[in-house]
Amino acid sequence: MTAPFGRRACEVAANAATGGYRLFSLLDHEGPEPEPGQFYMLASEKSWGEGGGRPYLPRAISFAETAPAKEGIRLDFLVEGVGPGTDRLCDLEPGERVWLTGPLGNTFSTPKQVNPDAAGAILVGGGIGIAPLAIWRRRLVEQGIPLRVLLGFRNQQHSGGLNELFCAGGTLCPDVRLATEDGHAGHQGYVTDLLAAMLAGDDATSAVVYSCGPPAMLEAVRSLCDANGVPCELAMESPMACGFGACFGCAVPKPDGGYLRLCVDGPVLRGDAVAEVAHA
Amino acid sequence: MPDFCGIELAHPVVNASGTYDAIAARKVFGDELLQAFPFSAFVSKTITPEPRTGNEPQRIWETPAGMINSIGLPNKGLDGFLASDLPQLAKLPVPLIVSVMATNREAFSRLVQAVGDRDEVAALELNVSCPNVHSGLIVGENPDETEALLEALRPLTEKPLIVKLTPNVASPEAVAVAAEEGGADAVSLINTLKASAIDPATGAPALAAGHGGLSGPAVKPIALHQVRVVRAAVELPIVGMGGISNGADASEFLAAGAALVAVGTESFRDPGAGSRIANELQTGVSEAPRRLAALDLE
Known about the structure:
The structure holds two protein chains of two kinds. Chain A has helices at 84-90, 111-114, 131-142, 162-165, 191-199, 215-228, 262-265, and strands at 8-18, 21-28, 39-44, 59-62, 65-69, 72-79, 97-104, 120-126, 147-153, 167-168, 171-172, 176-180, 187-188, 207-212, 232-235, 251-253, 259-261, 268-270. Chain A is α/β, with parallel strands linked by helices.
C-alpha cells in the first residue's frame, strides 16, 4: 500500500496530557490504514517556524493507535516535548490543522515471518518509544500470538500513555511488565533487566523481540538478543527531514559498511541489519 | 511553455539536484507521483565516477528557517547509475537532467561522454563544487579552473551543459562569465552556503563532517542577490534557487533574471511543493514580474 502523494491537512480531534507526555489524535480522510511501525511527517499548519524560524522541518512520528472515524480514520500520536517541533505538537488545539504526509516506512514482521518456529513475541519499549508497540501489541493479540510486553521509563515526568495504550478496564494489561529507573512503578532499574531475565528462561529462544525506545536501550536490546541468538526487530529513530527518501539525512550504518536510509529501508530494521545502534 | 536550452518544459519549476529521489518517491507514493509529477524537468542526484556511500551521520541539522546538510553525495557511481537508475528515471514523465561531478578532468570527461551519449538524458548539470585533485583548487571557486574544465568538456557532448555555481565565493559573476566563455549553455545557482552548527547538548559540531551546506528560506536573500549579479554579467539562462517555498518566492527569482527556478528543501516539507509553486506562480502572481523575467530571456 502506497501513501497518498504529497501532504494533506488533517484536523486535530483531541489532545490530552498523559503523564509527562501528550496523546493527540488527527482525523485523516484520505490515507489508508497504516501498519504498525509506520510513521507520518507532521507539522502544524499554523505557527510552524513563523516566529523564531524553528521548527522548520516536519517531524517524523510513529502512530500509536488507529481506529475508524467518521469519513476516514483516527490516528493517535504519543509525543514528549523535547524541542521546538515536539513542543509545538504538544500544544496542538482541537480544531486546528496539521500537515501530514504518510503513512511512511515499513512495518513489523510477524514472529513466524522472522522465524517459522517462533512461538511468541516479546515487546520491549522505552519512554516515548512505547507508542508503535501499542498498535503492534493489539495486532498480535488479535492474531492470538502469545506475547509479553516490557515497558521502561526513566521517572514519573518521563512516562505516560499506559492508561490509554496498554490498559484494559482501568488496569494494566496482564501481559505488560514495567521497569522504572526511579522505582515509582514495577521493577526498579532498566527494562533491559527484565528482558535479560526473560531471555535466560528456557523457552525464550523461540520468541522474536520487537523494540522501540532510546538508542542506548535499543543497543542493549540488540546486543542481548544477539548474545542469546534471539532475532529482533528494532523500530529506530534518526534525524529526518523528508520521510520519503529525498534528503538522505537518516543514514543508519550497515554492519558490512555503507548506510541504510531509515525512512525507506525502515524504520523497522532487523537487529542483524544494523551495526551497533549509535548512542551518546 | 518555457523553452530552456531548446528543451520544452510545461512550467518553470524544476528540482534542485540532490533534494528529490524520484526512484524512492515512486516506491513511497506509487503511480500518483508520476501522474502529479511536481517538476517540469527532473535533476538527478550528483553522479560520481565511482560509487560513494556518503558521509557518516549526523548528516542534517535544523536551523532557523532552514537546515544544514553534509550528505556526502551517496550514489551508485557511473556504471551503477547507467545500469540501474537511468532506466527508472527515464520513465518519469518529464525531461531528465543528470548532475555529474569528478575530481579530475579525465574522469569528468568520462562522465560527460557516457551520460551525454544516452538518449534518455536531455541535459547535464556540472557540479563544480569539488576540488581538482591536480591543482587542489575548488573548480567552481576559481574562474580559470571553471573555464578550463568547460573547454575540455564542451566538445564531448551536444547536450546542454548547465554549470551549478557555488555561492561560497566573493564574485559568483566572475565564475559565471568563465563558464559562459568556456561554452556552458546555462548556469544554476545557488548551491548551499558553507555552514556549521554546534550541538548545544555537547558543545561539539552537530554534524559528523564538522560542517555542511545551509539551505532553506534563510538563504533566499543571498540567492536572489547572486542571481541578480550573475544576470547582469552573462547572457546565459539562469536556473535560480535558494529558499524558494512558494509562488511569490519563485516570482522574485524570475524577476531577478532567472529563466527557471528550482525547489529543494521545501520539497522535504511538502513532497508536492514543485507543482504547488508552479500553480501559485501561474495564478497568484502579478503579471509584472513575469514580464520582466521574460525580457531577460534571450
